[in-house]
Specification:
single chain; alpha+beta; 3 domains; six-stranded mixed sheet; 15 strands; 20% strand; globular
Length: 463
């Protein structure tokens, strides 16, 4: 079966100082447009809050006042765009510093393509819509707070541009050249890719992929372009014969071992199959380098100084580079594990984890303070580093691409305390016990392997 899916192809860019200046200008314009739209939406929300607070001051409870507050017509992206077009280029209204002259608002707007602004307005509108749906309980999950302004120097430098697919302006002019609309004025400019995009170009020429948008972002010292495409991809109705012969595999996610499997998994050619997959050595080495670089940066920081030394800025850039490298290596390892799982097995049994509950703080309250707060904080960091949610997400969508079935056990299922051989439950087992010992059938097995076997036996297929 062939179906349409959204798929992003990410390329590193080789850009010079002139093009870096253009990309930074676009990213700054996108950030300013987002803040402009956010302030516009926030002003209307505060009008509604004033009416609700007046009812609460009159004696109504919060829920009743929220329901009976005077209605305020909330603007969308189109109204934000109209207000933007009406105010850009006007004289700045507000207090001036000594010797400062009045200047037009966003005087540089003509040097950036309009679509970079409009996508920022759309992002702000979607963020506010998600908040409103969460506030009115029309959105599942935890309560989403109000969106925030994007602060310069703290938010990621990025911008997104869309185009008309019938008259495309985003296209590849060569295997290592990507044309982006806009530039110094409205003229397009071409950026050089670090690697060839031959595979994507072949799909486009065959009519199997259509470019819909491009997102350019800076990650530490490198700029990247994510080309979003609508791809016509073949989705098999069932696993291959080799996958069906391999059957179901049980997987237990953990901190010490990133993945414990009931059956061996081959990650790379020439490597022995593994049932316990830990943190790869190249990730551990990068973490050690990052720890040393952060200590060096901390020593070079001058407390209370408005402007730091050149040595501190160099150390800060080194830390940012190592953090970007660590994130890419972690992501690469997760993609490798998830890809190999869906390629080698016909059904994957997983556990349903509540990561937010698992990483909650043990600090407690003033009246009832928590215990072992520092140890729990370290465990929380290790759980978040293991990326349980991201690995589950990757396995799920890649399983759909390969016709693989996903089976799950409930959140409260005691996979680590049950004996996978006879079903006896060990109620005294703690996190320190790395070996499971059954007092009924005398089975001795690694704790994580035992949990993976229980998940394999009790998991139920899901749609």
């Amino acid at each position: 079966m062939t179906t349409e899916i959204k798929r992003a192809y990410r390329f590193a860019l080789d850009v010079g100082p002139t093009q870096i200046e253009i990309l930074q200008r676009y990213a700054t314009a996108s950030r300013c447009a987002y803040n402009f739209a956010h302030a516009f939406f926030l002003a209307h929300d505060r009008m509604w809050e004033r009416g609700r607070n007046a009812l609460m001051a009159a004696g109504m409870d919060r829920r009743e006042a929220t329901a009976k507050a005077p209605k305020v017509k909330r603007p969308g992206r189109d109204r934000a765009q109209a207000f933007w077009r009406a105010t850009r280029g006007e004289q700045f209204i507000g207090p001036l510093r000594e010797g400062e002259e009045r200047r037009p608002v966003f005087a540089w707007w003509e040097k950036v393509h309009n679509r970079a602004y409009y996508t920022a307005f759309e992002d702000a509108a979607v963020a506010w819509q998600n908040h409103m749906n969460s506030r009115t309980e029309r959105r599942a999950g935890a309560m989403m707070g109000k969106p925030h302004f994007k602060a310069q120097g703290r938010c990621r430098e990025s911008f997104r541009i869309v185009h008309d697919v019938k008259n495309p302006s985003i296209r590849f002019t060569a295997p290592r050249r990507l044309r982006i609309p806009g530039g110094g004025g409205q003229d397009p400019f071409t950026v050089r890719l670090h690697h060839k995009a031959s595979r994507l170009i072949a799909l486009i020429e065959e009519g199997k992929a259509v470019i819909t948008s491009v997102t350019v972002a800076r990650h530490a010292h490198r700029w990247y372009a994510s080309v979003l495409c609508t791809v016509h991809q073949h989705i098999p109705g069932q696993p291959t014969r080799r996958q069906r012969a391999a059957g179901r595999v049980g997987a237990d996610l953990g901190v010490l071992n990133r993945l414990a499997l009931t059956d061996p998994l081959t990650l790379t050619a020439g490597q022995d199959p593994q049932t316990l997959i830990g943190k790869p050595p190249y990730v551990a080495s990068t973490e050690r380098k990052l720890l040393r670089a952060e200590r060096q940066m901390s020593r070079r920081r001058i407390k209370g100084a408005k402007q730091q030394s050149k040595g501190y800025e160099e150390a800060k850039a080194k830390v940012a580079k190592l953090k970007a490298q660590l994130a890419m290596r972690r992501a690469s390892n997760l993609h490798l594990i998830s890809k190999r799982l869906v390629q080698q097995y016909g059904e994957i049994a997983l556990e349903t984890l509540n990561v937010k509950g698992m990483t909650s703080s043990a600090k407690g309250t003033v009246d009832n303070p928590g215990r072992n707060v520092r140890a729990k904080a370290g465990l929380n960091r290790a759980i978040l580093d293991a990326s349980f949610g991201e690995l589950n997400r990757q396995i799920e969508y890649k399983a759909r691409w390969h016709g693989v079935t996903i089976a799950r056990v409930p959140t409260r299922f005691a996979s680590s305390r049950l004996c996978s051989n006879c079903g006896w439950k060990n109620t005294t087992q703690t996190l320190k016990d790395r070996t499971f010992r059954c007092l009924e059938c005398n089975m001795v097995l690694d704790r994580d392997i035992n949990a993976a076997r229980n998940i394999k036996q009790h998991a139920v297929p899901v749609q």
